[in-house]
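Re: that chain you flagged

S.,

Sorry for the slow reply, it's been a week of failed gels. I finally had a moment to sit down with the sequence you sent. For the record, here it is as I used it:
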Amino acid sequence: MRELLIASTNEGKLKEIAHLFKGLPLKCVSIADIRAEGDVEEVGETFEGNALLKALIWGKRRGMLTLADDSGLEVDALGGRPGVYSARYPGKDWPDRRKNLLKEMAHVPNNKRTARFRAVIVIYDPKDDKTRICTGVTEGTITHEDIGTNGFGYDPIFRFTDSGKTGGEMELEEKNKISHRGRAVVKARDILLAEFA
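Prediction finished late last night. Pasting the C-alpha cells below so you have them in one place:
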C-alpha cells in the first residue's frame, strides 16, 4: 500500500483529514510519524501558495506522495482578514486570538458579521512531478463569544450557515460534512482514488 504524507503538524487538521480518508487504499502518515524534523515557513501570500510550498518541499524532501493544506478565516467586516494570516493573528494561543478578533469586532452589528472559512489542498507526487489542487469554502457568521468546546482554531466563534451551529458545537462527523476542509478533502479523496491509489 502506498504511503501518503500529510504535511501538517496541526493535530486538529490531522484528525479531520484522517477521519475523511478512512478506507482509502493509502497509508496516511504525518510528519511526526516519519520523525521528520523542521517545518516549512508559510511565506506565500495566498492559501494556494502556502499549500503548494508545503506539498512541494515535503514531497521532494521525503520522496513521498504528499498532501498539504492551507486554510483560514476571512471576515468581511475586517476586509477579509485574518485570511492567510489566520494562525498568526495577534495572540499567544487560539483562545487569545479568538478573544482579540472578537474585541476588534465588538461594535460590528449582527447583519455585518459575515465570514467564511476557505481551504486549499495540494496533492504532489514527486515520482512524476504531478500536482493537483482542490478548494473548499463554507459561509457563516462571527458570534460575540465562544460557543462550544469542540473543534480547534476559530471554530467556537464561527457559526456555519448550513447548520446554524458553531464549529465548537458540532461533532467531527457533522462538521466534516459542511466544513471548508471537509469539502476540499472530499475532492482530494476522489483525485487520490482515481490517480494515485
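What I noticed first: The helical segments are 11-20, 47-62, 94-104, 172-178, 180-196.

Talk soon,
D.
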